[in-house]
What we know:
Radius of gyration: 41 Å
Distance between the termini: 87 Å
Shape: elongated
Strand content: under 5%
Structural class: mainly alpha
Mean pLDDT: 76
Oligomer: single chain
Low-confidence stretches: none
Order of helices and strands: HHHHHH
Helix content: 55-70%
Amino acid sequence: MRRFVCILLLLIIALQSFNKAGIMLAFKMNQNYIANALCENKDKPQMHCNGRCVLAKKLKQAEQNEEKQRAQSQEKANVLFFCRMNRIKIVECLLSLQRRDFNPFYLHFKPSSFSNDIFKPPQFRAA
């Protein structure tokens, strides 16, 4: 069931992308009917419209619907975030960069009495 729903949603998304291609395909399949019944210029055969006026209207209508959907999705997507801005005091930053303080640990450092001792491994005695 889950796989069926996923495939169905993918097909719906894909069909939205191929909306104009679907309109063109439907026009080609029904061009004779559109030219004879729905064409606005059927009384003017010298124009050789063959139903392309209906096709142009359908494509324009589909484009307008896409524009409306884009505008609606953009309105929903525009979200404002309000947050409190912490201001950095530039003067303090510059003063801290100019000061060169030593770490107090180094001032109180006393070397160990064992620092001069060198480890000597035991000697091997041959008997």
